[in-house]
Design goal:
Blueprint lengths: L3 E4 L6 E3 L2 E3 L7 E9 L1 H11 L2 E2 L5 H14 L3 E9 L2 E4 L9 H4 L18 E5 L4 E4 L5 E7 L7
Parallel strand pairs: 6-10
Antiparallel strand pairs: 1-4, 2-3, 4-10, 5-10, 6-7, 6-8, 8-9
Length: 153
């Protein structure tokens, strides 16, 4: 049984320096899929049903996804970052989604990634919002990105 939960990257209870901020429309939509899959199976699922695995393009975005994890008790999920040679690339390719600064955002855990030659070539987001390089064969939940423009719908 697959459960799919939309992740709103706008929380109506978001605390700001001046107090609680109202939600603003978001132009992206993410879905946490709570069935365990390997990274490549997760990528295939996301590409079949949405657009791709999520690209986390800022600390604000990582923090909001982490808050969602915390509130609902989830521990890990695949994101779209993978090791290719000595580089880390996003599964979703396209400047229409993110710019160069956003594409280079990383939120690695301490001592991660160790290297891309140890079989840990895929990226898992942890409950604290930090990322670990893991074996792509590990099964865990995953986050999909839907390319539909949700702010205009």
């Amino acid at each position: 049984h697959i459960s799919i939960y939309p992740i709103s990257l706008c929380f109506s209870r978001w605390l700001h320096a001046g107090g609680w901020m109202p939600c603003r429309p978001v132009s992206q939509r993410f879905f946490l899929v709570t069935v365990s899959r390997s990274w490549s199976a997760a990528q295939s699922y996301c590409r079949s049903h949405y657009s791709d695995l999520v690209t986390v393009s800022s600390l604000d975005q990582a923090t909001q996804i982490q808050q969602y994890f915390y509130e609902y008790g989830y521990n890990t999920a695949w994101i779209g970052l993978y090791g290719h040679g000595s580089s880390w690339l996003w599964s979703l390719v396209g400047e229409s989604y993110y710019n160069k600064t956003e594409a280079s955002f990383r939120n690695w855990n301490v001592n991660e990634p160790q290297n891309t030659n140890d079989g840990q070539d895929c990226t898992m987001m942890l409950a604290d919002g930090l990322w670990n390089a893991s074996s792509c064969d590990t099964s865990t939940y995953f986050i999909c990105y839907d390319g539909k423009n949700w702010a205009s719908s």
